Structures are given as structure tokens and as C-alpha cells.
Amino acid sequence: MKRPFVVAANWKMYKGPSEATAYLQEFLSHATTVPQTVSQTNKMNKVLFLVPAIDLWVVSQTLQGTAIGWGAQNCHFEKQGAFTGENSPAVIAELRTPYTLVGHSERRAIFGENDEMIAKKVRALQDVGIEPMLCVGETLAQREAGQTGDVIREQLREGLKLRVESKPFMVAYEPVWAIGTGKVASPQQANEAHQILRAELRHIGGDALAQSTPILYGGSVKPDNSAELAAQSEIDGFLVGGASLQVDSFLALARTKK
Ligand code: PEP
Q1: With a threshold of 0.90, does the pTM exceed it?
Q2: Whose Cα sits closest to atom 3 in ligand 1?
Q3: Taking burial as the number of CB atoms within 10 A of a residue's CB, which of 56, 141, 144, 196 is the most buried?
Q4: Residue 83: is it exposed, middle or buried by C-beta count within 10 angstroms (0-12/13-18/19+)?
Q5: Phi/psi at 186 (5° precision)
Q6: How many domains does the chain have?
Q7: Ligand 1 centroid distance, CA of 247 (Å)
Q8: What tens digit of pLDDT does each residue of 105-132 get?
Q9: pLDDT at residue 89 above 60?
Q10: Which ligand 1 atom is nearest residue 221's CA?
């Protein structure tokens, strides 16, 4: 089964509605030269933007009707309630949001999210028709202690514990030591981790699930290291932080050939 190649921008806590609109208008003006965004070419690749929640309205207005997707970077797992400052998956879905990130390492490390909360978020998103992108990844200490496989297998298994079996999701492998540090995992290190995750997906849901689920790599992906990462058999796309903030570098990544 051919999996789509997915290039996802994670804007983190950058860009307000005005800057987001200007960026996307510029991006769209070049989009005809991004093969992945032109559905008529029959390419299976996808481009999407994971944006601050406060940008979702303008971003959804700007991107609907195009082949480019969008999403939030986080959500709460309840539909509504006394959760001051949180964003409801149902409200995110009201904007016809197709995707949302779950379990980014910054959420886990800075905001104390654990696998149980992450599993509930995956389920809550699927329940409102949003495809979750579940992030997993080991810290440097865990890699150096030889625990990478165990850590990412467990994060994947636990994060998917409540999923709806018939609904799709994506996985992003993001070694914590490579995020925003300029240290990229070697193509071999990344491919090895992706193989571990693919095998775990097979264990969780069989061969069809393993073969159909895109596993993206994230961690200091830039135009000058993207080709050799994309050449790895198990890498189905990128989750991009820093290099997604400028149109030219993200356009270059959106044009990545698998
Ligand atoms: C990220 O935020 O998910 C990320 C991978 O960031 P960067 O590309 O800057 O390492």
C-alpha cells in the first residue's frame, strides 16, 4: 500500500492571525509549483499547517477549498466544561479542521501531559472527525541508556489505547534531543526508530494498520537535510518546526520528493 508523504508545519507559539494570513497567501501563490498540493497530479502527498489555536479561524478561511490541510497543536479531551484556557475538540472541529497534533514533547515536558491524557485526546479528536497526529520520541538520556525502543513503543501503545479502530491517525517520531536543537537524527537512526514503530503498529492493529499509517520524522528538518531523510524506506513525511516559519524554506520542504 502506498502511503502519502506528509509535510506538516508546526508553528508552535509563533504568528498571529495577520502574519498567518500573509504567510499563507504567499505560500498559496507558489502552491501550483508544489506538486503535493495539486490533486490533479495524482500525487498522494499532503501539506498541512498546525497553528496556534487563535489562528484557526483565519487559517481555515484561507485554506478551505485548497488541497492544503490545517490543524491545532493541542486540545482538551472533553467537549466542554470548566477547563479555563483550554480548547475543545468539538470547537476545533466546527472550523472543519482536518488534523490536530497530540502529545508533542513540549506538551509532555513543559505542561505535564502523560500517556493517559494523550490517549483521551486521540479518542476525543477521532470522535469529532479530526485525524490526530500522535508524537512520540525519546530524550537524550533515554537514547544513551539504550531505552529508545522501549520508550517509543510504550508511548505509541499507550497513546493509541482508546483509539477508534476504524479511524485514521498519523504518527510523528520526534527524538526530543533533535527538536529545535539543530541536531538532526541520522537517516539511519530515524529509519530504525520508524521500523520499531511500524512493527509496534503491526502488533497493535495488524499489517493493514502498519502499512497504511504515515510515520513522519521531526527534529531539525531543513531543506539541506530533507532529501536523505526522505530517501529512507520508513519515513513518510516530516513534522517541521523552525524551518516552517519562513515561506521559502517550508516551500522547499513541501517540494520534497519521496
Ligand atoms: C517540532 O516542533 O515538532 C520540531 C520538529 O521542531 P524543529 O523542526 O524546530 O526541530
Answers
A1: yes
A2: 241
A3: 56
A4: exposed
A5: -65, 155
A6: 1
A7: 16
A8: 999 999 999 999 999 999 999 999 999 9
A9: yes
A10: 8
